[in-house]
Give the backbone structure.
Amino acid sequence: MIAPLLALLFSSAAFAGGVELQIQYSAIQNALAEQMFATDGRYWVRGDVKNRCNYAYIEHPLVRGTADGQLAIQARFAGRNATNVFGLCFGLSDAFDLLILATPYYQDGSIRLKDVRVDSMGPETFYSNKVREAVRATLPKKFDYKASEEARKILMREAEGKPFLHELKDFQIAQIRVTPEAVILNVEFTLIVK
């Protein structure tokens, strides 16, 4: 997600201190597409592309920030809970838009999501309630961006072919703020050049 931005940040020969890093929502949307929506542009909640009668997925995520500091992901849900009888699916199916609200936080070297709330943007049904519960339960487990690991990889790549070594020490994301324009990370670290 923030690898190109961290690469720019770490390209200097030596650095120590804190930096404010702004990540535009288009970059977050691309990262979500790569990390979670990688299979046919879909995030599979249940099943996969091979199962015609029993599946559930979310697609077409649009990411923005809210005025109260949460990430908002609007996406389209489609699902089917049916039985295959002689090649035909008999059962329930539905499609509707979802609005997912979550708060990003930093823990143990990773950026994760908490306080996940999922609303269906249409009539409430038994099926839509089950979908919301499933997304709310799985999204915090699935989204785990290893920011500390990514920073170390970038430093190792930057040091290749140079007569000195970089060592990243005390990497922390002190604060994550969500604004309507961007996600802002206050990054603190020490970069030692040997």
Remarks:
- Confidence is low (pLDDT under 50) at residues 12-16.
- The beta strands are 15-24, 42-46, 54-65, 71-85, 88-107, 110-120, 144-145, 166-178, 182-193.
